[in-house]
Write a structure and sequence with these properties.
The strands form six sheets. A five-stranded parallel sheet has the order 6-15-7-8-11. By secondary structure, the chain is an alpha/beta fold. The protein has five helices and 17 strands. The structure holds flavin-adenine dinucleotide. The site of flavin-adenine dinucleotide (FAD) has 15 residues, from helix 5. The site of flavin-adenine dinucleotide has 15 residues, from helix 5.
């Protein structure tokens, strides 16, 4: 993948600036020029495309601030191998693909509870056309549950995982579940997903996301962010379509 991207950069004559973080973008006075602020200095330009990823920032629920367990608290993005988690009971919060994979892996060495809001989040049928192993019509309509690519909850339960309902809060070492149960796990792993990487865009742009890659700020476009375009914007196919559309918007700008 890396060599493909390097070859592609060369082919189109792109000069990437690696390790530079976008911090803000604003209009320069009433002109059509935009100023992009980065941690390596400011750039003035007519067009900016925010393609900083739909799942860019690890997300943890607010109640993590009230949690004090004797073992470890980490987000799935920090997890590498089972020995990171001290021996004892582990509570995995979040029953999507990351949570299910973690439950299966940690089961060999820990006693595992997987807390999940059921049923799984629903997505437009066209968003993930073929990947789950389940045949889906490529242009299906309606909503389907987010596919689980590995074990089902029933398979995990059979293997020994305690499938629990959603967590509603924590006090010290105790975690409260929505069915009134209370757990005192040694460690907690948050498989609670990610938030979009649009946090560097101005508040009014984020509040009024615009349509189809256009934002409320002329010259500022987005690609790969479903909130600003199509629900399948966070798939490879969706990003490709967004990118082509944004390129057309930019070419056609007066
Ligand atoms: C495990 C996994 C499996 C997947 N499988 C599939 C699949 O089978 N089929 C499918 O269609 N899709 C799949 N996807 C989704 C697909 O990978 C994404 O939709 C696609 O890679 C998103 O591309 P992107 O360029 O929009 O964002 P990203 O690839 O997330 O790129 C965003 C970039 O922006 C950078 N960035 C973030 N903030 C800033 C900032 N402030 N300043 C500068 N740079 C910043 C990030 O470092 C990153 O390099 C999968 C995703 C994951 C995580």
């Amino acid at each position: 993948m890396a060599s493909y991207l390097a070859a592609f950069e060369k082919h189109i004559g792109l000069i990437p600036r690696w390790g530079v973080q976008a911090i803000d973008v604003r209009r320069v006075g009433n002109s059509t020029t935009l100023e992009l602020r980065t941690d390596a200095g400011d750039v003035q330009t007519r067009n900016v495309v925010c393609a900083t990823g739909a799942h860019a920032r690890p997300h943890m629920p607010a109640w993590v601030a009230d949690l004090r367990v004797p073992g470890t608290v980490l987000h799935s993005s920090q997890y590498q191998y089972p020995r990171q988690i001290p021996a004892g009971d582990v509570l995995i919060v979040g029953g999507g693909n990351a949570g299910v994979l973690l439950a299966r892996e940690l089961l060999a060495s820990h006693r595992v509870t997987l807390a999940t809001r059921t049923p799984p989040r629903r997505r437009p049928a066209a968003a993930y056309p073929t990947m789950s192993g389940v045949r889906r019509r490529p242009f299906g309509i309606g909503q389907v549950p987010e596919p689980l690519f590995t074990d089902s909850y029933a398979e995990l339960r059979e293997a020994g995982v305690d499938i629990a309902p959603a967590v509603v809060g924590a006090t010290g070492a105790d975690v409260m579940l929505s069915d009134g149960r209370q757990l005192s796990p040694t460690s907690v792993v948050f498989a609670t997903g990610y938030r979009p990487g649009d946090d560097w865009l101005p508040d009014d742009v984020r509040a009024h996301p615009g349509k189809r890659g256009r934002t409320s700020m002329p010259g500022l476009f987005t690609a790969g962010l479903p909130r600003y375009g199509y629900p399948d914007g966070d798939t490879i196919q969706g990003v490709l379509r967004d990118a082509a559309r944004v390129a057309r918007h930019i070419i056609q700008r007066p």
